[in-house]
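Q: My labmate handed me this sequence with no annotations at all. I'd like to see what the chain might look like in three dimensions before we decide whether it's worth expressing. Could you predict it?
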Amino acid sequence: MIGMIGQWLWWDRLWLPGNVTWADLKDEEGRIYARVSHLYVIVPYALVFLLVRYLFERIIATPLAASFGVSEKTSYKVEHNAVLEHYFITKSKNPRQADIDGLCKKCSWSSRQVERWFRRRRNQDRPSVLKKFREVSWRLVFYLGAFTGGIIALYDKPWFYNLREVWIGYPKQSMLESQYWYYIVEMSFYLSLVLRITFDVKRKDFKEQIIHHWATLTLLAFSWCANYIRVGTLVMLIHDSSDILLESAKIFNYAKWERTCNGIFVVFAAIFIVTRLIIFPFWIIHCTWVYPPEYYPPFFGYYFFNFMLVILLMLHMFWAYLILRMVKMFLFGSLTKDERSDNEEDEAEDGETSVTEDNDRHVKVTNGCGGGGANHH
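A: Here is what I predict for the chain of 377 residues:
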């Protein structure tokens, strides 16, 4: 049974054009081809990434945060109340007024006391700015290193300048050592993000993040096995380029360097639109959709790879919509909070609440003036 599944899974027609079989891709005459067995190392490397990240966040990111004036905020522990805690865990973190009235009777508390308890209880579960700063610093270091490595690996390759070169000789294209390490490092990093995603700061686009990470891993793994390595490296390079600015904007946002954050955000928004909504669909997807039939008959892998690219494009469009909406509010001075972030609620003297701006993906404006931050990925 397992053997039959393996035969179907690795059937030549799923992964290779009709005129090529796995037997044609044997390592010989100095040629080395990508194998699925090469990808097994991403599991231990992902664990290494987690260890390195742990050390980085404590040895480097924490002192760096302190130099920016970011520190651990002392959280207020709410008074234990069994009735309210049970409602908070089992029903809702944001009770309606009718429910608040009912809880008031059960606890013999005033409406204001119940509202304050829920507000403080929500804040108690929210991640600190220091935790966010550590995560962002780690991703910034990785994306900066990955983008630099990608440029070094691609700058002297003909397909970096002429996309038709991507398909010259396909699928009999020997794997380069630089391509191998570019793939392994990127896939190990994204796998480490998947392993940590339940422990990291959760955003309102948590589901989109999971889809993005798994789509990226699936796309990279399939492109590796189908020898779509050349175009795969181009896809990775495009994504890393804007992520550097994104994480930089978040760092300055947490440090409350508002003007610096705003400036980086504007540049980030422009590069995001150019790379994700112009270069990605009109250069990369055009390259993978239009050019291949000129060199070989379409097969399952051809359609599947393009399908995965379209999923990424849809995620880009979703995030671009949020970014452009933030830019619009920023330009007209009407943005008061990051609609994506789970912002902390402050206690005010009169019992009302305001929103603390420690956002991640977009821009914030305080009292109608500059102050921003961005997050995406």
